[in-house]
């Protein structure tokens, strides 16, 4: 469904008539006594928008206009000596009870501890996997070393068998040595 074209966004004559009816013909901005009752601040000039259909620009213009009106009102209140800022020692009544806020705080703390515990479990699992991997690598290295040693031992045995040499430079005497007699 295509958007319908907007009618004029303001009927200035009707707005001024309504303002006249609401204020009773009294301009609240003229005198300080009536202004304090209403705190009405009117922008000095109307908004001029290039494209009234651009929502972002329109909202920004409204924001800036309202911000300047607040600044004007603050200056006027300061000039009149009327306080408009909450005192530092003012404590308003809480909407939520302390009991409810303690429940909320406890739930948030529990969620934080649960998240921390889950993270710790994740780290321990990763460390366990890493430890198993290291242990497996160490076992494999030991097995390779054992295999290498066994191969070297077999090669040495083959060399000794093939050479007929037992690897010692001592000659063996095949004759038995005489026994010494002991007296009874």
TrEMBL record:
Pfam families: Ebp2 (PF05890). Keywords: Coiled coil, Nucleus, Ribosome biogenesis. Residues 143-155 have a biased composition (Basic and acidic residues). It comes from the Eukaryota. The keyword Plastid does not apply. InterPro entries: Ebp2. Its main location: nucleus. It is found in: Nucleus, Nucleolus. GO terms for biological process: ribosomal large subunit biogenesis; rRNA processing. This is Essential protein required for the maturation of 25s rRNA and 60s ribosomal subunit assembly. The lineage of its organism: Eukaryota, Haptista, Haptophyta, Prymnesiophyceae, Prymnesiales.
